[in-house]
Write a structure and sequence with these properties.
Elements lengths: L16 H6 L14 E7 L5 E7 L1 H4 L4 E5 L22 E2 L5 E7 L2 H10 L1 E6 L18 E2 L3 E2 L1 E4 L2 H7 L2 E9 L11 E7 L2 E6 L4 H12 L6 E4 L15 H13 L3 E4 L5 H4 L6 E9 L5 E13 L20 E11 L12 H19 L3 H7 L17 H12 L12 E2 L2 E13 L6 E6 L5 E4 L9 H13 L6 E4 L16 H21 L10 E6 L13 E13 L5 E11 L6 H20 L31 E5 L18 H4 L1 H13 L10 H9 L3
Parallel strand pairs: 1-14, 12-13, 16-17, 21-22, 25-26
Antiparallel strand pairs: 1-5, 2-4, 2-6, 3-5, 7-8, 9-17, 10-15, 11-12, 11-14, 15-16, 18-19, 19-24, 20-21, 20-23, 24-25
Helix pairs in contact: 8-15, 11-12, 13-15
Length: 701
Amino acid sequence: MADTGTALGAPAERREGRDKVTGSARYAAEQNIPGRVHAWPVAAGITRGTIRTIDTGTALALPGVLAVLTPDDAPRLAPADDPTLAVLQDRRVPHHGWFVALVVAETLEEARAGAAAVRVGYDVEEHDVTLTEDHPDAYTPEQANGGNPAHREQGRPEEAFAAAEVRVDARYRIPPLHNHPMEPHAATAHLSGGRLLVHDSSQGTTAVRATLAALFRLPEDDITVVSEHVGGGFGSKGTPRPHVVLAVMAALRTGRPVTVALPRRLLPDVVGHRAPTLHRFRLGAAADGTLVSSLHEVTTHTSRIKEFVEQAAVPSRIMYAAPHRLTTHRVVPLDVPSPSWMRAPGEAPGMYALESAMDELAVATGLDPVELRIVNEPDADPDSGKPFSSRHLVECLREGARRFGWAQRDPRPRSRAEGPLLVGTGVASATYPVMVSPARASAHALPDGRFAVRTNATDIGTGARTVLAQIAADALGVPLDRVRAEVGSSDLPPAPLAGGSSGTASWGWAVHEACTRLAARLAGHTGPLPDGGLRAHADTAGSADAGSAWARHAFGAHFAEVTVDTVSGEVRVRRLLGVYAAGRILNARTARSQFIGGMTMGLGMALTEGSTMDAASGDFVESDLASYHVPVHADVPDVEAHWIDEDDPHLNPMGSKGIGEIGIVGTAAAVGNAVHHATGVRYRELPLTPDRVLEGLAGPL
């Protein structure tokens, strides 16, 4: 490792870490602009219908209340590409929690009191919020999320399945899941001197600026959107959300800086959620475990105002070799909030179903679950036929099995007990696609010997500032402490959002190119630098978004050890182990943090996280962190993340793959498979709560 500290892979500390732990980092709702006021939204208490009356008189009479915006008098927006942003534009209520008014007041407490005083009368209509596989309104869309074809079929999967020596035909259910970032969605908007300044909790300010410009008919050059620090997003902040539109509306109405910070209990209704998915999985195999047929059918829901189809069958297209294959999605439009991205959309629920079915096939064939996966390793991408740029899943499985002590496992269910505790172990594979988008960046050599790189990346807690500085230092051949990375403002060179595990690859490519060009300029420069220093720019359009002859994915293997309490039904995870093949690891410290964070989120998906759509009210019952349970440190006593060295020249100049999401992908299945090994009971619905576990233990094995 280079002694300059520039080597990519070095465990450099996050540059903003001290600011965050000392409280000096300022988030979107913490902008103390002189004259700032606060706004609180009023959410619809019905599921479907029309506003008949809005009484704002009592609210306006309260101390400190400055204004109440309603659909009758709110600023008019241009038509929105995203219908969820068309807030306060008409009296229709498409789902529970839709915003029907906004109260602006001098203090947060006064705004909240004003919102409670607004009286809304409705004409209520019948609603339907219940997802079923046989729903009469279900249809097959053209595409699932991400532009993926909704339906793919190769060979004769139905016939091959019927003729297979060994068959698995199982259904799996995953409930609605919610992102719940630590920092709720918030924005502070300030209009001054003809310019609009917005501090937004967002995963990408370039898109927020473009959206606000279109909605409010303003020149983009007159808008600055800043997301200097973001307290998590997990997909829910990937595109502009209603809170930022409301903040700008209120600033325009009052002429004051306005902060809108959404109460956590409102988040499930207005910022997206992972839609529930119903899976039917059929695997047909020869007696030796070789797959001959794979059929993955998914049914999910979307809202009536915006189609979003969780692409949960897509990962089944690339994981294992089978000559006859079917993957398809059906979607049901319901009177529910619009679903959206949540960490590893598609892959997280889809791989739970696939890896659970593979475990069932291992039991049916009598094969070791690790060996079954290796037997079905494809030579090329089964869907596209392209060769993989790199695929080291087998190495991940082998290395994970070695580290975990898999060889000492007794494969028989219920073979290990400690008093009332049944102990089991499980394995699952993981994958996530490599994605990259064009970005721009600039690099600046300063006369004092320091360097600055600028690109509109967003650090959502992943350490983007630090890794981009490492990329720059490596390309420039200078010590890391001489490089400053500027991110988080739409005034910087435009860049894509932090999402799809594509941020570092996209921004880093542009930073690397800009710094490489700057290094060339410096090499040809003699004498001291001019007062303004030297600059270089890069735009990766045309290269980062160029087509590839390779199938590019990250892969991994998850192992879990659990205990199941036969008295209480409680499942505890003793050990989680992940081994990943994710290209070149750019920062060992932040990478390990990302892998472990994803695994922890997968643990929550397996054991504690789940939301219930109440058929009567049309609302999510678990709407805050008191009822929607996320894992805490006590739930993850032993978590290890490792990776293998992977040299892939077909990705980007750094040779890196995304790592933010693959950690969640196989974790839930590994835990579920471990619970089956412990109990002999196959649980096919998440989360594995004590009541569900006890019910299974009471039934026939």
